[in-house]
Amino acid sequence: MSEPTALGLSARTGAVMVAFTVVFTAMMAFTHEATREQIAASATEEKMKLVSEVLPAGRYDNALLDDYVRLGPTRELGLDEGGRIYRARKAGQPAALLIEATAPDGYSGRIELIIAVGADGAVSGVRAVSHRETPGLGDYIDPRKDKDKRSPWITQFADLKAADVPDCKVKKDGGKISYHTGATISARAVTNAVARAARFAVEHQDRLFAARAGDTL
Prior knowledge:
Layout: H1 3-54, E1 68-71, E2 83-90, E3 93-106, E4 109-118, E5 123-130, H2 184-210
Antiparallel strand pairs: 1-2, 2-3, 3-4, 4-5
């Protein structure tokens, strides 16, 4: 094969590859643009489903997911890289704070939580958003994994009064929260994180509700 022929073949191959890349990139961009709203709507729906599990819809009337403040690293909530707190309001008045928090001391690592604390300091609900607790042992902190479907372990925190927060410990530590035998660590980690979040909400409630939406505190 002559040198000019080889160069021509190389050029044609390069042109084909460039054309393929351009077409593929255009298709990916079109697909992303066409599905972006659908993906965003699906994500919002999932977030609201989680919110409804910790805070009844009748407790607030604002656009909850748009009404939030950002936090920088916050040791009290186990947030090494910061997080968000969503603010629920009813008729313009503070109703509850939905706190992203982490229990850093789970048996198998960090347990990501969302915790709803009313303006009166009472806890209205808690859910484990993600965790790696041992299947069949410590994963009962997640109601989807809890074998007791009628009364999942984590529902103990619903309607936990402000006066009860100081005693928000597992029974083994002198508190009122039950746990599964042989899996105390998971329950203790979540329970202690809930107590810390409730205290944080009460101590910082005024400035959290007063901040502008989207501000970082």
